Every structure is written in C-alpha cells, then in structure tokens.
Amino acid sequence: MTLQEPSNEELRERVANVLGLVRDNALRAEREGRLTDEVVTALNATGLHRMNVPHRYGGYQTPATAQVEVMAALAGACGSTAWVEAIHQAGSRIVSLFTDEAQDEVFADPDVRICGAFTTTLTAVPTGGGYVVNGRCPFNTGCRHSRWDVMIATTAPVDGRPPEPMWVLVPLAELEVLDDWDVTGLSGTGSNTVVAHDVFVPEHRTLHVLPTLTEGRLRSVANATDPFYRIAIVPLLCATSSATLLGMAEGALSDFTERMHHRGIAYTEHHAQHEAPVTHFQLAEATMKVACARHLTTHIARGVEADETGRTTPTMRDRVNARATMGYVARLAREAVDIVGSASGGSSLRTTAPIQRITRDVRALSMHGLIAPTTNLELLGRSLAGIAPTTPFV
Q1: pLDDT score of 2 more than 60
Q2: Collapsing DSSP states into helix, strand and coil, what is residue 265?
Q3: What's the domain range around 187?
Q4: DSSP secondary structure code for residue 3 in this structure
Q5: What is the pTM of this model?
Q6: Are strands 148-155 and 114-116 parallel, antiparallel or unpaired?
Q7: pLDDT at residue 1, as a whole number
Q8: At 352, which CATH number?
C-alpha cells in the first residue's frame, strides 16, 4: 500500500473517519475475544501503524503528542482497539532499535503489525549464529492480526556470565498461539499466550534489554543519531498507555452526558436525570477527574516530544515520574468511570451498554504490571526518598 505521509492533523482525521466503525464493532470484539477483521483493515488503511516506523521505510515518525491524541480518540470508541494499537506502536518503536538487517525484514511492509509482551517467561540458549528459544509467553496483545512478535527471553548463563533479559523478534508463523484469552476486561484485545517450541532466532533479531533501557544503546546504525529513536522508550509507553486510559474515561463521560438527557432516576421525582442536583455533582466531579487525567497525559507526551526533538534529556527522576504519572492517570480514569457508571442506573447493566465494557476495560488496564497505580507511586516514593528504582523499566 502506498500512502502519502500526512500531517499530524490529517492523520487524526483519517482515524476519526473510522471511529464509527470501531465503536460499532466494540461489542463484537469483546464477545469474540479479538478485533474484527473489518476494523483491522480499516485501521490499516489510515496509515496508523506507521507512526513509529522510520521515514526510510515510508513511516511517519509521528510526535508523541499527536500519537496521544490518536490513541485517546480510538480508546473513546473502543478500549480494546486502542490497547491493541498501543502495543503495535510499542512493537514498531522497539523494532526500530534492532539491527538494520532486522528492520529491513520487518518494515518491508511499513503497515506491519507487531505484537509483544514484557513478561520474561521464555528462555534463549545460544547456538550457531543465534539462539534457540523455548517457553510460553502470555499476554501477547493483538497477536491474532500480527505478523511479528517481540518478546523477552532470559539468556542461559554462558562462560560465567549471569542470565539476562533479551528481546527476541520472531515471526508469528513460527509460534503456536493458544486459544486461552478468556477474561473479564479488555476481552477484545486477543492477548493470547504464544508458545515457542525450539524456535531459532538469528542473532541480528535480538536486542539486550538492560543496555537498551538503562544506557540508551541501539543496535541500529541508521537510527543511532536520530533523536526520535534515541529517547528513553518507557516514557513513550507511559504516554500512549495513559492516552488509552484517558480516552476510555472520556468515552464513558460522553456516553453518560448523552444518556442523562433521555432517562430519569427511578423511584424519585426526577423524571429528567440531567436536572437532578446529584447528577450535577457527579457530572462535575467526573469531568474534573478526566480533565486532570488529560493534563497529566499531555504532560508526559510533551516531555517525550522534547526528548524526541533533542531539546531535553530526561533525568532518572523524570523517567520515574512518567511512570508515576501514568499510574495516577489510571487511578483518575478508573474513579471517573466508576462515578458515571454508578450514576447510569439499572438500564446500563445491559451488556450492550458501553459503560459496562468501559468499566471492565479500565479496571483491567489499571491492573497491568507497568501501569498499576500503587506500584508506580511506590517507585516515585523511592526516588523522592533518594533510593534507586527497583526496576530497569523506567
């Protein structure tokens, strides 16, 4: 497919044009446990998957603030769709750090979809010219429609060197995908477990995690001097993850604001919910929480964008703060959704009511290991107390 590189505004318009389709397919995606083929095809046609692909392959290298706007809009229509796309974006950005040879393979199709997971459940044993990978890797979001999978394997000890985590890049066709995604939230993401059975991964399709995260090392020669790819990767993931949470909360608030004009409050004299004082309080409180979540999400994205353009270099405190801010966005989004969900009445218990799906999806995403508010606030607290982070994922 040949797509002319759009301006940031044109990209947002392309995505806006398919939001109706995304929204209409949200319930079906939830019930089938994966995005529908129609939605995947429509999103592909927007060029969305090129946001983190290098220019030399026809990619857009879209600034973080524009990516956040796109992801929030998608999440307002369907949280599962947005989270799948957030993972695809992360996959493209990580692959851009691999060797140029690996990128030539993957980005031969600039609209390629790359799934992945950060869980370290695979093992990698060195062999001639690469590694043999084995194990089960759960939570591979979007794997049903992906061509490549970027996962973390733990290397076997060699010559006295301790094991260490390493990204491995594997074609989905070489992996077994289990039909085990049976969950109560983000059901439409198709985050199935994949299994590697003696899969050979050539050395050029590997990337050691710790030097990449803590020292900013790239294996790519072509991208080595490009500030867009020299940034700390975790804050970008924080920005797009926050945008997904924000968008779901905005979607819930929008749905509630529309419904309250067409229903009363049962067993009261309030025949129009929007006229009731209690509704005014609920609406105002939820709106303020969502506004705070948007402000914080934008703050993360602007920090990433300043790093992308070489204007700033984030300190460790900045990076820890990005994770803590994302965790706080998760808390605010969940609180806002809880408020409007509780105020939506018994009629909203129907499975076709968007607020039901959004409530489950926000709760599920806020439990993600990288996003969980308590974990991230603890991480910030350690930093404020002068204690080093307990994780390289900052």
Answers
A1: no
A2: coil
A3: 114-208
A4: -
A5: 0.96
A6: parallel
A7: 47
A8: 1.20.140.10
Residue 185 CA, distance from chain mean position: 15
- Give the containing element (helix H, strand E) for 86: helix 79-95
The C-alpha torsion from 336 through 339 and 342 to 345, rounded to 10°, is -90
Q: What mean pLDDT value characterizes the chain?
A: 95
Residue 67 to residue 298: CA distance in whole angstroms: 11
Give the pLDDT mean for 361-377. Answer: 97
- Name residues whose C-beta falls within 8 Å of residue 189's C-beta, 6 or more positions apart in sequence: 34, 35, 80, 83, 84, 141, 142, 181
Tally of domains in the chain: 3
3-state DSSP assignment of residue 255? helix
Q: Which of 181, 99, 194 is nearest to 148 (CA)?
A: 194
CA distance 19 to 381: 39
Give the DSSP letter of residue 343: T
For residue 127, the cross-strand partners are: 130
Categorize the per-residue pLDDT at 118 as very low, low, confident or very high, splitting at 50, 70 and 90.
confident
Clarify whether residues 191 and 244 are in a common domain.
no
| Nearest by Cα to 36 from 255, 189, 229, 221 | 189
Same domain, 93 and 167: no
Residue type, 13: E
Does residue 389 lie within any of the structural domains?
Answer: no
- Return the SS3 of 285: helix
Using the 3D structure, point to which of 83, 106, 129 is the last residue of a domain.
106
